[in-house]
Amino acid sequence: MRGRRRTPGRCIGLTLSGAVVLTTTACSPIERPLAAVYVDGRGVPQALLRSCDEDGRVRAPWLHGVAVRTTETEDGTRPEASGTEDDTRNDNGNDTENDNGNDTGNDWIGWESSGMHKAADFPLFSPPAHWPAETRGPQSLQPGYRYDLRFGDPDDSYEYAGTVWFDADRLARVPAGRVLTLGGVMTREAFEEAARKAC
Asked: Residue 25: inside a domain, yes or no?
């Protein structure tokens, strides 16, 4: 149900062979299908953000594109995002994520906006004017980059994150009248329903 507060996720300590092991999955926000992207009839990429908050708020929305590298496999090459979990540390071994869990390394292109905002629909590279946003690099889809459109839980629990991952080629293959979400390609109506159920 939209706006319903749940118990925040907590790190769980386990004793294993005399050592305490922390389960990292319990510490990370759950990714929910609350963001979608598509290309409109004019060829302009669009973003849709939906919130579970009863006031329709989202925390620190951003669009980060990270360069993709390829690794050789038995079937040929497979692209991998260079901004993996291990890459969120700087040369000193320190985390480069801020308190919203955002990757704050310098290797991304796109935009990010801090603070609370109302969920909105907008051109992918033109967030609403009342969202002060930092931009980096080209403000258009670039080949060789994997993009993450994301926002955080507006409550202090950091329980969930709305997100969708894509690249220029994947987005270009979304049929007219459909949107790309964390759950795959679907109709706009199916996305709205999936977002409601995710809350």
From this structure: no
